[in-house]
Fold this protein.
Amino acid sequence: MTNPVKMLAAALCCLVCALPLHAKKVPGEKKMGAYLFTFFNDATHSLFMAVSFDGYTFTAVNDGQPIISGDSISEQHGIRDPHICRSPKDGAFYMAMTDLHIYGREHGLRTTQWERDEKYGWGNNRALVLLRSEDLRHWTHTVVRIDKLFPEKFGDLGCAWAPETIYDPAEGRLMVYFTIREKPGAPLRVYYSYADDQFTTLTTEPRLLFDFPDEKVEVLDADICPMPDGRWFMTYVAQENPAGIKYMISNSINHFDDYHTAQIDTEPRGCEAPNTWKRLGEQRWVVMYDVYSLNPHNFGFVETTDFKTFTPLGHFNEGRMRLIIPAHDGKPASAMASPKHGCVIPITRKEARRLLKKW
C-alpha cells in the first residue's frame, strides 16, 4: 500500500513555485460546518490532523498517522507547535511551525543534545517553517532562519519557537508572532513580524508584542483571537509556579498591555500553548491548552462567553471533549497519541469530507 506521508513529502519537494494568490474568499460562518484540529507529537515530530463536525468530538484523519512528515520539510528533520489559520485576503490556509527535533541525537540526526552549544539553552533552534495551501491537501513550504534574516539583532539568538499567524486588517497582511530568546541567557519573550504575500519569508525585523510586569518571568506561546467588538483577545503562558495561561485584551493586534494576574486554566501543574476558537453558531469561545505536566500529554479546555469568566471543560476523553485516534498496525491508540500544541479552526463540511476522503 502506498505511504501517503511519503507521497506528500515527494509532492512538497517537487513544488518549485508558490500557489496562486487569488484563491476564493473565506466562506462566512453560516457556511462553516466543521472544525480542523492540527497538532504534533514527540514520537514523530510530524504534523497530524483531526476533524470534528460538532466541536466536541475530533477524529484523527489518516488512521492517526502523520499528514506531513517533519523530516520532509524542516532543517532539523522535525517540526513542533503547528498553527494554522485562513487568511480573509485570499482564502488560503497558512501554517507556521517550529523547526526543531528534540530527540535529534537519539535518532541519529546529530551527535550533540542540541544543534548548538548548551549555552544557548533548551532546544536552541534558529528556524521556523512556513507552509501555504489553497485546499488543505497540497502544501508549499519554506524554512525561515531568523538569525540569517535579521543578523544585526538576532544573529546570536537562543531560540525561535511556537509561531502563529493572523491577518492584520490594518496592515493588510499576515502577521507572524512567536517566542524568541534574543541571545544566550536572555529571557523568553514574544515578538511579531510580517510575512511576504507568498508566505516564504519575514519582511520586518521582529518587535516585542508585549512587556510582562515581572522581567524575571519568562513568557511564551501567545495566541491572538478576534473579539466580536473589534478588539483582540490574547492568551499566553507565564512561566510562574506553575506555568499557566493568562490573557490580555487590546484594541491593537500588535500591542498588548492589559495585564491580568489570574490564570484562566484550572490545572494544578504546568500547561502551555493556548489556542482560542469560536463555536460555530454560538457566542461562545473555547480556550484549549496543552497540559504537558500530564503523562500521557493531554489538552485542557475552558469556555467563555464574555472573555472575563472561564468555565472548565476538563480534558480530552475525560468529559465532553473527545479525541479519537484509531489503532494502527497493531499499536493501541494510546501509543500513537500524546497530542501536543494544537490549533483549531473552522472549515466547511465539504473541506472536512475532502480531507477524510484523501486520508
User: Anything to note?
Assistant: The CA atoms of residues 2 and 249 lie 48 Å apart. The mean pLDDT is 91.
